[in-house]
Amino acid sequence: MKLLRFVADGMLGKLTRWLRMLGHDVEYAGSMDDRQLILKAKEENRILLTRDVELFKRATTRGVEAFLAENPTQTANLVGLAKRFGFKLEIDVTVSRCPKCNSKLKPVDKASVADKLFEATMSNYDEFWQCEGCGQLYWRGTHWKKIEKTLRQAEEGMKS
Q: Of 7, 46, 51, 156, which is the most exposed, with the fewest CB atoms less than 10 Å away?
């Protein structure tokens, strides 16, 4: 699976979380100014993601690879990114990153996290992952259907 490194400006928090779930290393730079964003992208060999046309132009003229996320929906932006950079729109939890902090996820034994979960979660789910950075727990809960629906829509968009 082709995994990429991005730096996203402050307008792209949701897109950042999607890309992290897909396994990409995405630095969210909500408080950086344009100069800092361009410098970070260049120094760390990251692709700059932005909605800001002027920032996009400045970055590309300085030799930084950039993507202008100009579509109004996450799905359309995911399609654009996947087409441009050639990655798949599917979640593989073995490479997924924490949507909150960008650290890697590791599988954890259900019994080891039982005290952190609601009883209903314990009885309905068997696979759990924990962020190595912030400790957040993840499982394929009821929200998973919505995630899969968005990715299916994006896959359809790849065909057009």
A: 156
